[in-house]
Amino acid sequence: MIEFDAGKSASNLAKHGVPLEAASRFDWETAIVTIDDREDYGELR
């Protein structure tokens, strides 16, 4: 079960410019996905 946290969504909006509810409209089938290799993060991003 997923619970919506309005406070966390507001925090994400302030920090990243995207509210969490935007995820409900995200479509992996049409997304453009690239590897972030700007730095060595120690993991694939």
Automatic annotation (TrEMBL):
Which InterPro entries does this one have? BrnT_sf
Highest taxon, organism lineage: Bacteria
Name this polypeptide is given: Uncharacterized DUF497 family protein
Q: Can you name the source organism?
A: Labrys wisconsinensis
The beginning of the lineage is: Bacteria, Pseudomonadati, Pseudomonadota, Alphaproteobacteria, Hyphomicrobiales
